[in-house]
Structures are given as C-alpha cells and as structure tokens.
Amino acid sequence: MSRASWDALIAACALPRLDARAIAEQASGRSRTWLIAHGDESAEPAAAHAFDTLAARRRAGEPLAYVLGWREFHGRRFEVGPAVLVPRPETEGLVDAALERLDGVPAPRLLDLGTGSGAIAATLALERPDAAVLATDASAEALAVARANATRLGATGVGFALGDWWAALPPGGAPFDAIVSNPPYIADADPHLLDPALRHEPPGALASGPEGLDAIGTIVAGAPARLVAGGWLLLEHGRDQGPAVRDRLLRAGFEGVATLPDLQGLDRVSVGRRPQPAAGDRVV
Ligand SMILES: C[S@@+](CC[C@H](N)C(=O)[O-])C[C@H]1O[C@@H](n2cnc3c(N)ncnc32)[C@H](O)[C@@H]1O
Q1: What is the pLDDT, as a whole number, of residue 2?
Q2: Distance 46 CA to ligand 1 centre (A)
C-alpha cells in the first residue's frame, strides 16, 4: 500500500492550514521549512499515525496548545496541559508593563499570584536574572507544570508556594517590589465559559464570582500590606473591567492608577502604586 505524503495528509485532515502544519511539525519532528520543501515525501507510518491522532483531537475542539503540549510566550516555549491555562499573548503586555516599572530597581522581589504554567514568573526571572520571584497557585497540578517549565528554561530565580491567594505566602516574608497577577476574571454566568475553546481549560483558572471580580478584589485588598512603598500592583482583567479595577485600586489607596491598552487598544491591564511615605511621615 502506498504511503501518503505530508502534503496529502495536511490537505486531507480538514483543519485550517496553520493548525495542520503545526501538527505535522510535531508529528514528523521536522521544521516548517523542511515540510514545505519535502511535503511530497511519504510520511513514516508512525509519524502519519501520530499526525492523525493529534489532528483528530484538534478537530474535536481541543485547543492547539494542548494538542501540541506547548505554547510560545514572550519568545519561549512553555509546556502546557489541561491543568493550566494556555498563556495568552495579551499577558505578554502584563509582563512588559512590570519589566518597565522595575527598570532601575536593583534585585527586585516579585510575586506572581496564580502562576498557572509559570509563564509570567519564569519570564520575569529570565528577563531580570537579579530578581527573586515567588510564584503561587491554588492548584498543585498547575504548580508542578510551572516548576517543570521554570526548571527546563533555567529560570533559577523562581520559588513556588501552594495556596489560596495571600494564604500561600510564607509568614513574615519581606515585601515585594511588584506583584503581578493574571487571575480568573470571567463572571460565573458568562456564556463565553461555554465556548468550546474555553471548555478544555481548568474552570478554576477562568471564573471568579458573579461579576468576575472576586479574585481581583481579594488581590487588591491584600496587596498594599505586601508591597514596599512605591511598589507596583499589576493586574490583567477583562476588557470591560478597567473602570471597576481602577475603582478598587483607588479605594485601596493606590496611586498612579491607570489602565494600559493592549496592542489592539483594549483595556486589559490595570496598575497602581503603593504610595511613598511623604517627607516627615513615620515609616512603619
Ligand atoms: C487566568 S489563570 C492565569 C495563569 C497564568 N498566570 C497565565 O497568565 O497564563 C489563573 C490562575 O489562578 C489560579 N487560581 C485560581 N484561584 C486561585 C486561588 N484562590 N489562589 C491562588 N491561585 C488561584 C488558577 O489555578 C490559575 O492557574
């Protein structure tokens, strides 16, 4: 029986071409360039079988990142699976906003609340090798993925702690120069949660109370006590939540409160700074 070529497998799999090519790269162990140049060559039976299996998962609606087992974030490959949210491009903006604010802060102490795959924590640690980063999550499975990613990428400056938001922090720890979080922020009844793409992601990573603001409220309320004076809190949120998040930041006493648009001009990240003590204030 003649064996199908890579071009034929890609054409027949009923998937968008980009997805089919990514799956072919994974199944063949070959680069995109090789597949383009040698697409008329027969696929080995084991590789063709792997392609069919992965393509069937993708056709059934599983996100491409889970099918491949990885997603690129800030130029690095993070392994992902059903225990963690697939890192999104908009979260790169959150990381960049944090890095900008840490410019000139020597050996910063950083906290990533709800680290998931560890994309934020490991990226911060790799971009700022002088930083000490603590990454937390309420899911032990997610923390295992984050730890594996940090180890594989050589992000040695990251420590990990399991627990519910602030309860994960070791007691008596020094305050942070920046706290960063992409917490769950979708409203519990939001119909988007039924979207086939989101159905595969861990529910605990997505929804947070009737308005989607429960986790953000907890994080904002606890942040001032864990930040150095002048330290930043940076939060990712839904595109319609900018006013509500800014309002919470202002009510918690933050200064420099602002919402930063992402590359599409959408409100996806809000920031605030713990006030510096005024001259003459007693520092406690
Ligand atoms: C939207 S995901 C973000 C994951 C990752 N930081 C990213 O940006 O790709 C939210 C993360 O918060 C974690 N989480 C949910 N509830 C939590 C809680 N009560 N305490 C700590 N982490 C929590 C979830 O397990 C999930 O990993």
Answers
A1: 64
A2: 37
Q: Which helix (H) or strand (E) holds 251?
A: helix 242-251
- Calculate how far, in angstroms, residue 190's C-alpha sits from the geometric centre of ligand 1: 18
Place of tokens 């054409």: 11
Q: Is the CB of 87 under 6 A from ligand 1?
A: yes
Say how many Å lie between the CA of residue 233 and the centre of ligand 1.
16
- CATH number of the domain at 84-273, please? 3.40.50.150
> Taking the model in full, what pTM does it have?
0.94
The separation between the first and the last C-alpha atoms of the chain, rounded to the nearest angstrom, is 79
Per-residue pLDDT tens over the stretch 250-263: 999 999 999 999 98
List the one residue out of 169, 211, 204 whose CA is nearest residue 184. Answer: 204
Question: What is the atom index within ligand 1 of the atom nearest the CA of 84?
Answer: 27
Contact 115, 137 (CB under 8 A): yes
Atom of ligand 1 nearest to the CA of 218: 19
